[in-house]
Amino acid sequence: MDISYIFVICLMALCSGGSSLSQVEGKQKSGRGRGSMWWGIAKVGEPNNITPIMYMDPAIHSTLRRKQRRLVRDNPGVLGALVKGANLAISECQHQFRNRRWNCSTRNFSRGKNLFGKIVDRGCRETSFIYAITSAAVTHSIARACSEGTIESCTCDYSHQSRSPQANHQAGSVAGVRDWEWGGCSDNIGFGFKFSREFVDTGERGRNLREKMNLHNNEAGRAHVQAEMRQECKCHGMSGSCTVKTCWMRLANFRVIGDNLKARFDGATRVQVTNSLRATNALAPVSPNAAGSNSVGSNGLIIPQSGLVYGEEEERMLNDHMPDILLENSHPISKIHHPNMPSPNSLPQAGQRGGRNGRRQGRKHNRYHFQLNPHNPEHKPPGSKDLVYLEPSPSFCEKNLRQGILGTHGRQCNETSLGVDGCGLMCCGRGYRRDEVVVVERCACTFHWCCEVKCKLCRTKKVIYTCL
Amino acid sequence: MDYQYFEEESDYIDLDEEEEDDDVETAGSLDHRFGQPNSEDDYYFGGEDEMEELVVDGHGVLELAGRLLESMQSCVQPSVLQVMQYVAPMLLLCLLCRLLCLLYSQRRRLTSLAPLHLFHFACGLIILQLTVGYRLLLLLLLAAVGYLLLQLLRLGRRGAQVLAVLTVGSQFLYELLIWRRRSDWPQLRGIQMVVNMKLISLGFDLTASGQLQARIPGPFAYLGYIYSPATCALGPWVSFGCYMDCLVPRNSCLVSLRRLLPNVVFCVLAVTVSNCLAPALSDFFGDSSHFLVMYWDALSVRSSHYFVGIMAQALLVASDQRLDGATKESDMLGPLISQPWRIEWPRSISSLVRSWNIPMHEWLKRYIYAPCKPTASSSRGRTLLAVLCTYLVSSLLHGMDLRIYLVLISLALLAEGESLLRRQLASLLNACVTANLCPGKERCRYSHCPSKRRLNSLSYWLVRLTNLAFTALAIFHLAYLGVVLLGDGLEVGEDGDSFLWHWQQAGYLSHYIGLGTFVLYLFIS
Q1: Biological process GO annotation list (chain B) (predicted)?
Q2: Of the N and C termini of chain A, which has fewer Cβ atoms inside 10 Å?
Q3: For domain A408-467, is the CATH number 3.30.300.20?
Q4: Contact (CB, 8 A) for A188 and A147
């Protein structure tokens, strides 16, 4: 490579990097926690205790934004689902990250503060996961609540039913999903999707990069829920023929969605400020200028806060870059985050509503029309299901309350593992302590019909390793 | 609806029962037989152990309940809704057809039957239109071809045989030519199968006494018969004579309505089990026991068959159409197409096969098995030929589906082996352990018969236990064979190994057991 060329590139990288950083800083100040305060709803109370009137509860009042309060008021029964969803998100997040340095810890919730702590102020991978999983959980639990009938305002959309099931199954019998539309109330995912957009995306206007990142990750979470909505069909008929075919949709267990999102977390795409930041045109191509302007690798070694970034090796270990594998389904069109893209069925009335509400609706849809460019121009642009982040994650090794990092002191680790949960990585090389403890646990359980489990209490010795 | 048809064995099984031997040897042989169900029990117990482990964390039962609830919510409602949308118009059309026929027949003099046939034809046509849409034209074309073939009957008995061969052959040809190209053939196949059965039966019936007795039915009668609303969409087969008998409804509407209701309820129940409950259970036991997975998957297949059968029963009841043959008519449900209770808890494989699809069984017995086996005292070779012939015809009727061929041949061999062995055992032990239920206290020829013995006698319990073991074995075979038929019969042929996966997992156990049965039989006799 030509030296002068490299020089120019570095110069440009510095310029744009600097400017992007300053912008990130700026919006952290202005947009801090804007759309994320609602997470606190998880701690408001037990889902069971919530009655429809409780949207007036002061705790909820302080947690939700005005528009969110209105949504909750207008959709009786939704509050319980939201609380459930938020708790679902937290427990799933903590499950997925149980073996990592950052273990999705939540803080004691107090009003005006963010549930997941200050880590959310940074646009790092972990933040992207938080946004995606919370949005996904809300979609999931609302859809589930819909099908359970606990939300009064989500009616079954009978416009989706085929005129007669018979008319479909012939064509669908082999071609599969092609032109089959589900019937009944099983398409509540549409309501969940719509509601999640209205509710979760409230504070995110998409005006700056961080808000775009949040929007993108929220959308990605919803897209994962939608993708896990499986159609199942069964043929009935004489001699294995397909005279009667019945189909239904099934929403997968949230654990599956959590697993998928975690995989996307591992292969998340780092995005950067582009020249077309304010372009609302969905079809704006990746500008060659912007793409070429920054050739710094995505492992972020050149970022100024070097004290906090991972070492190269650890970074690889922790983040397992594999955008190429995970982007296999991002065909060219899916670069555009058209809201209806993942499944045209899900938002049947988008067109109608758009027509009815005119301009307002149009503006709202534009919110999702943007293109994020990968930090490393050699990577593919993020697809609709990919998570995106802006800056490298801190190492999470040392306690840093200013940044909301608890550190890994006192965490348990696995001595034999070579992965992130192994003591070497988990304790950041500080060393670890070996303790023998006597654990009392239930054992030799027997099942008595029906339905009782009787167990003995056993004392076993266990060795645990704790980071210093 | 119908993977059965070897029931015919039953006919000759009871014909010759001689050969008395001593009881000594049989004790050992019984042990062997008991050994098999035990191996199956191992599966069972294995499964229960696993279940306990699942339960250990205290969530097993809850989890199962949760999953069931979940699948119920997402699956039952749409399934039932779609089934209702499917069945309701058909039922209404059947009732309409019945009403029209009733009104017409109440005229003073019945000048012509043609309007009755026309009502049937029109209603059937509307049902088919609702079911298959424009593909109806293809069916009508095939019906026209069938009518042309029917003219062969002018040749007499020989013509009927040619007709049968041509019909079955052409069905196979359609499969070969159309199936590959058309994605919708699987839907038409079942309908066309019933039409073919009706054609063949018509041919044999008309030429029964060697000469052409009656005129070949006119086009209206033919079309009315072929596309009668009660039987056109879902079957079952009814003979032309039976159709003519029921042109004018006899039962009162009240009786029909009373029978319709339980049919509809059971229909919904069956589709729920087939779509939702069985797959959920199969999922739940997915990691613990392969036998349970097979069992639940096969239950899904079986209840799918019950579902179609009961739906067809509802249509029969609605249009007051009766079935041929031994009057298997229950007071509650009307004509019976299958007897789920005999399938879920079978006495033997052959009795199971006979209860699977009664009209189809009747058809095969009447038109294929009986002609192939002219006299009762025929040689064993002749009988075997008749069985093979029956197998071949029913396979061909079912169309090109490798899975069905495999299942049918396995069923035939298993049923044959079991019947032979049990007959031998019965005569050896002088106990009522044959494949067929003993006819009762007076007529049972064996001395050790549960109906003759008191509860506290040892032989009573031994006979009971033996039959129970055979039942358990049949249940295992049923799960083993049924699981293959799960899923669409569409992608067969491309990946032959995928549907044999379960058999591989089970180590082809059923087939070895079947083989063992034959060996044991030869050993004893």
Answers
A1: lipid modification; Wnt protein secretion; Wnt signaling pathway
A2: N
A3: no
A4: yes
